[in-house]
Amino acid sequence: MEVSLFLCLSILLILGGGCLGCLEEEKTGLLRIKASWNDHSYDILSEWGGKLDCCLWERVTCDENTGRVIEIDLSNMLDGMALLNATLFLPFEELRSLNLGYNYFSEFQGTLKLSKLQHLVLDGNSFTTMPSLQGLIKLEELSLWENKLTGNIPQTIGALSSLRMLKLGNNYLNGSLLPQVWCKLRNLEELDLSNNRFEGNLPPCLGNLTSLLYLDLSSNGFNGVIPASLFPNLNLLKFISLSHNYFKGSFSFTPFLNNSQLVVFDLVNYNKSLKVEIENPTWFPPFQLEVFRLSNCSLSISTRDVPGFLLNQHKLTMLDLSRSGMTGKVPTWLLVNNTALEFLNIGSNSLTGPLDLHSNSTNLNLVLFDISSNLIQGEVPPYIGSVFPSLHVLNMSGNALQGSIPSSMDKMEELGSLDMSFNNFSGPLPKSLFMGSANLRVLILSNNNLYGSIPKESNLIGLGYLFLENNNISGDISEGLLKSSSLELLDVSNNSVSGVIPDWIGNFSMLTSLVLSRNSLEGEIPTGFCKLNKLLFLDISENKIGPASIPPCANLSTMKYLHLHSNELTGPVPSALSEARSLITLDLTDNKLSGTIPPWISSLSNLRVLLLKGNRIQDSIPAHLCQLEKLRIMDLSRNNLSGLLPSCFNQITTFRRKAVEEDKFGNVDYAWAANLSSSTYSYDGELASFRYLFGVGNAESGEGDVVEFISKSRSESYAGSILHFMSGMDLSGNKLTGPIPPEIGYLSGIHTINLSHNHFSGPIPETFSNLREVESLDISYNELTGQIPPRLIQLNNLAIFSVAYNNLSGKTPERKAQFNTFDQTSYEGNPLLCGLPLERSCAPIGPPPATPPKATAKGEVGSWKAIFLWSFVGSYGVAFLGITAFLYLSSYYTELLFDFIEAHVSFLRLTT
Questions:
Q1: Whole-angstrom Cα distance, residue 618 to residue 641?
Q2: How many CB atoms lie within 10 A of CB 598?
Q3: Element containing residue 2 per DSSP (H, E)
């Protein structure tokens, strides 16, 4: 008994721990951590304190010999924002690893005085500044990935000479990479600075980090030339990602001649200013790549063919050579050489020839195949469905492919997105395609020569986006679409679809965008529309819809874009629109609407585009239009509007200031995206995933809205981001009267003003010289008087100018700047205007009169009296002779004259 007690005491003395488990001070420290976070934590630490030995507690690891705590994992523990107090960790003097990732820590209070700490993980928190790292002299791994760090990286990082891993990706760090920080980290093996805001050139001394295995500098603002000294000595590199930066100059693959470890090379540049020298006739690289992305660069190859070194690559799982300027035939041999290939993107090049696929080959692993925007010709092999049975995404758009769409497409049972638009495909819409993959989410067959009707049978139960526009499709809107109950977008515009809009259209409860324009549809909008509570975009323009317009029961609270132009709508502006408070574009152009502009239109506070052109709207322009502060384009032309022009248009903010990037047009009409992710490479337990986004737009971008507006004397279509910067007002072709309000001259951000073909009178406001952004100014065919303000020559952006057919007088503006480009058609129809470019000179005609001799004042008076008397006598003489001759020649009028005299001049009457 005494011996056992002696041995136990000896062990306690030697090891500092012993039979009683962890140290009491460390146990107390753990309980303090639990107590301080009780208000914010999930019930994860509930068992802490239940067992005597804290080494047996969850998330705690002790040294087997000393019993000291060496690892603490408190990740994913907190459910609310909290501060991190560094003093809580003072008792743990032997701590080697601390994981506090994915909590809600916002601030680090104090300094971690853990001299033996090697691993510190603070991922997924809300830190805005780097914690103090002084004293962490043995730190080997530091991870602050996905926080909210700002500013530059502190220079104290450079003192961590033992650092092997540094992960600072997905933050807001900025500035340049300072050499005094990075050149000292000679033991660094993994460096992740991705998804930040770094800029400037890459420091050449990164090439001295010869232990580097993983380098990710993607998604920043780095620019300049990639240093030639960066890679020659980095022979251990396995992973390189430089994508989504702004590099320029030239970059050569020669430095990788001695690298046999390279597995991933990722360089998708943000501009085309980078030339990549990749080809060498004798170059056989020692590595076998799994991922190779070289996109939006210029391949510096004389033949510009597919890089020849890829002939010796047989382990590729992802290959992206899009937008690299390649020519030659479609390199289908890549599919033969790399049977594990999952992603192949060679789109946006100049590849030619047919799509040559082997009928007896099968690529079971290929998930994405993109050959879009090339010059590929011929027919699609009829057996393509059996060659690619596992495809999720197939994009063949923007080529010269022809023939019919192969029926074997229905064998692609995993297909989620198919784009065959902008080709020369012909024949009827393939029924086999509509009976194919139940997983098909996106189907784009637009801009081809397909004909026939939409199949009445369909198996596309997962279809969300259907694009059939710009074909020759006829017949009615088929009930076969009802199987696609999850449909979010339907575009059948610019076809020959006829009949009425079916009432069952309301069964598509998820529908956000419906585009049926430029067809032969007729009748009224069905009441089924009242069920479409998520509709953002509706375009049924250029049909024969009418006479009624929107059903009163329609729920337009989510509607953002409404295009009903060129139909047969009658009556007043639909009152159902008064509830469309989210409306951005309202286009009712070229209908037969009557009545007045309703007062409720001022409640559409988000309205950017108002098009009421070509209707029968009457009365005056109401002042409540000025409450639409976000309005950018207003077209009220060709109506019966009358009265004075309101003077309050300068209250519209967007007319008054220059357009800025924040002037967004909100959610878009139709947008879709098919997302795929694939684990392509794993390194040291971390999954390196490449997410491939394949789509036509973003749901917030506004790219799909198209607005027609007459600018610069011609009808223009404005779409997408240009709508953020275009602004204009067209009130032409009405019956507006009175003077042009001088407040119109304060619309300094507007681009187009058309007030022509009205009855405006008075002078041109001097304030028009303030229209700094105006490009088109048309006030022709009015009744304006006075001179053209000379200061208009300050309008340097003016491209179209017309004051023709008014009653203007005086001299035309000086022929300077833009006014030197306007010809006489800008001024014609003003008889009292003179000066270039008109042919009427403002100088007096003929020689100047001789200087008269000096005369006395009395002599001058007598001279003028004589001139007056002779003029008087001469005038009356001519008048008398003219009347006498007239009476002599016409006895009838002579008799009438004497009858008049007898009746009205009493003293000439003869009395009897």
A1: 4
A2: 17
A3: helix 2-15
**What local confidence, expressed as pLDDT, does residue 405 receive?**
95
User: Beta strands of 176-283 (E only): which ranges?
Assistant: 190-192, 197-200, 214-216, 221-225, 239-241, 246-252, 264-268, 274-277
pLDDT value of position 104: 86
Dump pLDDT digits (tens) for 717-751.
444 444 556 789 999 999 999 999 999 999 999 99
793 in Cβ contact with 817 (< 8 Å): yes
| Separation CA 317–CA 331 (nearest Å) | 16
* Residues 6+ away with beta carbon under 8 Å from 890: none
Query: How is residue 390 annotated by DSSP?
Result: T
Contact (CB, 8 A) for 512 and 488: yes
Q: Is 876 exposed, middle or buried (0-12, 13-18, 19+ CB in 10 A)?
A: exposed
Give the integer Cα–Cα distance in Å for 169 and 432: 47
- C-alpha–C-alpha distance, residues 20 and 892, integer Å: 148
> What residues in the chain have per-residue pLDDT under 70?
1-20, 39-44, 280-282, 301-304, 658-725, 845-912
Largest CA distance in the chain: 180
Q: How far is CA 391 from CA 360, 366, 422, 675, 711, in A?
A: 17, 6, 21, 13, 46
Phi-psi region of 689 (alpha: psi -120 to 50; beta: other; left: phi over 0): beta
Residue with tokens 């047996």, as numbered in its chain: 56
User: By 3-state DSSP, what share of the chain in percent is helix, strand and coil, each rounded to 5?
Assistant: 20, 25, 55
Please choose, from the candidates 471, 469, 407, 419, the residue with its C-alpha nearest in 3D space to the C-alpha of residue 444: 419
How would DSSP label each residue in 491-558? E--SSEEEEE--GGGGG-TT--EEE--SSEEEEPPPGGGGG-TT--EEE--SSEE-SS-S-TT---TT
Beta carbons of 155 and 177 less than 8 angstroms apart: no
Query: Is the separation of the CB atoms in 670 and 491 below 8 Å?
Result: yes
Give 446's contacts (C-beta < 8 A, 6+ positions apart): 421, 422, 467, 468, 469, 470, 471, 491
Cβ–Cβ < 8 Å for 589, 613:
yes
d(CA 293, CA 222): 18
Residues 6+ apart with CB under 8 A from 244: 218, 219, 220, 268, 269, 270
Tokens of 313: 């690559």
Q: What angle do CA 176, 177, 180 make, to 5 degrees?
A: 125
Angstrom CA distances, 520 to 220, 493, 498, stand at 50, 10, 5
Predicted pLDDT at 42? 63
The mean of the pLDDT values for the chain is 84
d(C-alpha 753, C-alpha 768), whole Å = 11
Query: Has this prediction a pTM greater than 0.90?
Result: no
Contact 649, 747 (CB under 8 A): yes
Tokens of 510: 């998820």
**Distance between CA atoms of 277 and 282, rounded to whole angstroms?**
14
In angstroms, the CA 893 to CA 263 distance is 115
Answer whether 72's CB lies under 8 Å from 34's CB: no
Residues 177 and 152: beta-carbon distance below 8 Å: no
For residues 515 and 437, what is the distance between their CA atoms, to the nearest angstrom? 24
Both tokens assigned to 353? 């020839």
Cα end-to-end distance, the chain, whole Å: 179
Closest CA to 529 of 496, 505, 560, 495: 505
- Find all residues with CB under 8 Å of 336, minimum gap 6, and list them: 358, 361
User: Residue 187 is encoded by which pair of tokens?
Assistant: 């033991």
What is the Cα–Cα distance from 204 to 714, expressed in whole angstroms?
55
Cα–Cα distance, 656 to 649 (Å, whole number)? 9
Distant-in-sequence, close-in-space partners of 165: CB < 8 Å, separation ≥ 6: 140, 141, 142, 143, 188, 189, 190
What per-residue confidence (pLDDT) applies to 679? 29
Residue pair 324/296 in contact (Cβ under 8 Å)? The answer is yes
